[in-house]
Design goal:
There is one protein chain. The longest helix is centred in the N-terminal third of the chain and has 14 residues, at 29-42. This protein has helices at 2-10, 14-23, 29-42, 46-56, 59-69, 73-82, 86-98, 102-111, 115-124, 128-138, 141-153, 157-166, 170-179, 183-190, 195-208, 211-221. Helix 2 (14-23) runs antiparallel to helix 3 (29-42), helix 5 (59-69) packs antiparallel against helix 6 and helix 15 (195-208) runs antiparallel to helix 16. The chain is mostly helical and 227 residues long. The relative contact order is 0.04. Helix content is 77%, strand content 0%.
Length: 227
């Protein structure tokens, strides 16, 4: 039946090919739909090509490619708008962003729950208040990390440390606190970090003569002899 399927395709008998694949050659069903979709694309039957790309499981890549190559940008936007595929929504949002259409890009990033990109756009536009609101509501670590980096560049060190910690990047929070002699924050986040970071911070406090903090971190970090 696989050979019969291929024969029908070669002869242009697509309905028979799909029928035989559906009933007797299901291992090649998706491939048959894909080949049929490519044929329909070549003859300009866009609607049926879309249906068969969807049945072949390749719609995420093939439908945007087809519509884009044909210059059917309105149809492409309508297709994405009806879709619930997050990868497709993010792809379209990135395209809109590349064209400077930030408001529409935010709409599609939001539908895809891509909080990192929403924060990135807000920071790019200088709207730090909106970025902070998105990070607070989403609880997304990647978004929090990006926001922390932007705050660090702007010199908002205390806030940057806090958002690094929210992102679970205690090494970055510790780096910033240590570089800027913010010992309170350094101790607070060192206690939440890995044993190796705890011991490194313990050495830092020991060298500064702050033995209470050093002892506590050596103890919690597992170096009992040193404590």
């Amino acid at each position: 039946f696989d050979l019969l399927n291929r024969l029908y395709q070669a002869a242009g008998l697509w309905q028979k090919a799909v029928s035989i694949a559906d009933t007797k050659d299901r291992i090649h069903l998706k491939t048959t739909h894909f080949n049929y979709a490519k044929h329909l694309e070549s003859v300009g039957d866009v609607d049926n090509a879309i249906k068969n790309f969807e049945k072949s499981g390749t719609a995420r890549q093939e439908v945007p490619r087809m519509l884009f190559n044909m210059g059917l940008m309105g149809d492409l936007e309508d297709y994405v708008h009806r879709s619930a595929d997050k990868d497709l929504l993010k792809w379209w949002a990135a395209y809109l962003e590349s064209k400077g259409r930030y408001d529409k890009a935010r709409k599609y990033y939001s539908r895809a729950n891509d909080f990192l990109s929403l924060v990135r756009i807000a920071c790019f536009k200088g709207d730090m208040a909106t970025a902070a609101e998105i990070v607070s509501e989403a609880g997304d670590r990647a978004a929090s990390y990006h926001f922390a980096r932007q705050l660090e560049v702007q010199g908002e060190l205390a806030q940057a440390i806090s958002y690094y910690a929210n992102a679970g990047c205690y090494n970055q929070a510790i780096r910033l606190a240590r570089t800027n002699n913010m010992d309170g924050d350094l101790m607070r986040f060192a206690l939440k970090s890995t044993p190796s970071l705890m011991l490194d911070c313990a050495t830092h406090f020991e060298q500064k003569g702050d033995m209470d903090k050093a002892i506590q971190l050596y103890h919690k970090g597992g170096d009992l002899a040193r404590a």
